[in-house]
Amino acid sequence: MLKVESDSIKSQGAPVQQAGINENKEEQTPTTPVPAGSSEDEHQNTDDRSVGNWVSRYPKEAKWSIRLDATYVAAVLVLTFSLTFLTWRGDTFQFLAGECITCSEADFRKFSYWILGGLLGGTLYGLKWLYNVVARGYWNIDRRLWRLFSPWLSAGLALAVGALADSGVFGLTTKATAGSAFFSLGFVAGYFADSALRKMKEIADTVFGSPEKHEAHPSITPRK
How far apart are alpha carbons 20 and 203 in whole angstroms? Predict the structure, then answer.
């Protein structure tokens, strides 16, 4: 499920201590309290680190994996900006359409902006949660699949949401023709993918009917 990482962070307890993590705990100094309501109140430390404790809590192997995750997310971010610029210039359409005389550049840009907006939204969401889980000590290798596929799932979802909105299925009518409007819709759908999925589920239940739970027949007993 998209963006499950944020829910996992809330549901988990303290991070499991690993070898080499917080080995200098006895050298840490107590955190200096910041008066509530002061100008520094909103900048308080939120990763449970004491003042002056700058040593990484992760072993060497984990650091390399974290750098790999960060490099991947940064590469997707650069790719998104580059494709957006090329689409705005018209180079992407010319390269993909070639000699096609029936292809519509306006439709191509509309669909492309939905995808690219969703890709940017999903990438920024993943980037935000990457540095959050690293700083708070919740990073682990099992969430790598989420970080790998979340931006692309957001892009696909944004395309579907854009097509549904454009067809009027959402009950919304828009006369927007600017690329910024399409890109903005894609970004919102990609960044808030969970909300978009819930809305699409409501539509599916309305069109196809909500699934019914079938109760087991009283004469049938489960096999022991």
Answer: 50
Max CA separation in the chain (angstroms): 72
Q: What band does 19 get if pLDDT is binned at 50, 70 and 90?
A: very low
Which residue, 112, 135, 103, 126, is CA-closest to 183?
112
Spatial CA neighbour of 15 closest among 144, 130, 127, 134: 134
Are 200 and 127 in contact by the 8 Å Cβ rule? The answer is no
- DSSP, res 101: S
Residue 90 has pLDDT above 80, yes or no: yes
Angle between helix 105-136 and helix 179-191 axes, rounded to 10 deg: 30
Q: Cα separation of 107 and 89, whole Å?
A: 15
| Crossing angle of helices 144-167 and 105-136, rounded to 10° | 150
User: Residue 12 has what pLDDT?
Assistant: 45
